[in-house]
Amino acid sequence: MILQQPMKLFFMFLSQNKALNVAAKRWGLKVGASQVVAGKNIESAIAKVKELNKQGLTCTLDHLGEFVDSKEEATAATEYCLKTLDAMASTGVDCNLSLKMTQLGLDISEDFCLENMRRIVGTAKQYNNFVRIDMEDYSHCQQTLEILKELRKDYDNVGTVIQAYLIRAEEDIRSLKGISLRLVKGAYKESPEVAFQDKAKIDENYFNIIKNHLLSGSYTAIATHDHHIIEKVISFAKENGIKNSQFEFQMLYGFRTDLQLELVKKGYTMRVYVPFGQDWFGYFMRRLAERPQNVAFALRGLFSK
Fold it and tell me: Which residues of the sequence carry a binding annotation for substrate (predicted)?
């Protein structure tokens, strides 16, 4: 346990290293990443989604990408999101789309990013599909919510993510009543000024925002691998007459697959977050940072090559 915090900081540092991120694109899915990233292209990702659908699991696809600082890259990422929506529609898979707006030009221009988002959400609407805006670090939080507000004026098929470790999370939940939200604990390193640092406090706030969003009648995606939280949510829903159709559980591709299938057998919607693409390094390092146990993925991948 003594090594847990230094190890977390180490992997978070690696996740933000642009040079390593660029190099990783040349490595391929090494050091265990293939266990948690569903291939490098749309075809491989759709194939994985089909396999998961056959097991009763629904999915969300995320074309990985970070550190986009040119309009050309952002436009290419937008086109790839559109191709992904096309592929979902043509294959009939049970899957929606997740994305990060920094990949679509958020750090270049909010108006430019909003334009790209309108193209994506509009296409998804035509396909009767849904787009989830992933929440990134705190510096992008308010921007994300402002763009979501603009999109919601014209589209009802878009939602975002609220992170329980942020002090502002409870207030954000209240202001987003009626919007489909994915609720998570949080995966970025943030300062004590904006985020709770104590695990027990984060867990407490996480369950509180889950309860608040459910009680408001809003659709709630509970994204966690913590079986204690899952059990508490199930009990809370039953005690308060909340139907299974009002919420779903979400987990990452490659993690706790037995628990995923167990929830399906119990009649709950279980959505798997399926990342894919060549820009996998930052995502994978954050997964290693979240829990020391995840390092076993990397070691198995390293010694199996």
Answer: 100, 286-287
Residue numbers belonging to the annotated binding site for substrate: 100, 286-287
Lookup: tokens for 280: 């996998």
Is 271 known to be catalytic?
A: no
- Residue 143, amino acid: Q
Domains of the chain: 38-279 (3.20.20.220)
Number of neighbours of residue 89 by Cβ within 10 angstroms:
16
Residue 65 contacts residue 103 (beta carbons within 8 Å):
yes
Rg (CA), the chain: 18
pTM higher than the cut 0.90 = no
Q: Which of 182, 203, 271, 279 is catalytic?
A: 182
Element (H, E) at 113: helix 110-126
Q: Active-site residue among 62, 134, 172, 279?
A: 134
- How do the pLDDT tens digits run along the chain, 305 residues long? 334 565 555 455 544 556 555 544 555 555 556 677 888 899 999 999 999 999 999 999 999 876 788 999 999 999 999 999 999 999 999 999 999 999 999 999 999 999 999 999 999 999 999 999 999 999 999 999 999 999 999 999 999 999 999 999 999 999 999 999 999 999 788 999 999 999 999 999 999 999 999 999 999 999 999 999 999 999 999 999 999 999 999 999 988 999 999 999 999 999 999 999 877 666 666 666 665 555 554 444 433 43
Show binding-site residues for FAD: 135, 163, 185-187, 199, 224-225
